[in-house]
Known about the structure:
The chain is an alpha+beta fold and about 200 residues long. The chain has helices at about 10-15, 15-40, 180-190, and strands at about 45-50, 80, 90-95, 105-115, 120, 135-140, 160-170, 190-204.
Amino acid sequence: MGGKRRITGLCLAAGVLAAVLAPAMAGAARESAGAAAAASPAGRVFTLHSPDIAPGGTIGASYVYDHSGCTGGNLSPALSWSHPPPGTRSFALLVFDSDVPEGGFWHWVVFDIPATVRSIRAGAGDPTKNLLPREATQTRNDYGFLGYGGPCPPSGSRHHYHFMLYALKVAKLGLDASAMPEQVDSRVTVEALGETEIVAVFAQ
């Protein structure tokens, strides 16, 4: 599978120079976001949990893609989180394969999740099931369809999948379902108060 290079809003606006600088700037912003999460009151840390995806574990067949030579169930996993930073007004969830050459591969992008929400049910990545909060928006993944598309690395390879949840200082990102994953990633990086993630693997 081919991936699309992760680019930030600065890259889109400023061309070649920004393309060189943006990865470092995004990394610095995410480090700051992580520090904000760690600084939650009473030592409480913004944390993402899942009964379906274990940190460092292998992703089960139910959550693997069901096309392109893969035979999984393409079910998005159940997720929950605790202790978001003070001032959180919404959440965004981004699922990313960091091992696809030339910039990685986006598997799921959800944003405008209300600040009162603390969990997402299994299967919520299927837009036809209407399991997400009505305010939340899903974009097209890098397979080309709305919602969740599970792991499906090339045969003989082992990839890492980052389930990244961001606490944001805005209630709305000002984007809609037509936004590219890179656009959401760029906006989220700017608006993040904190970040937590689960990294799991899959190989075939």
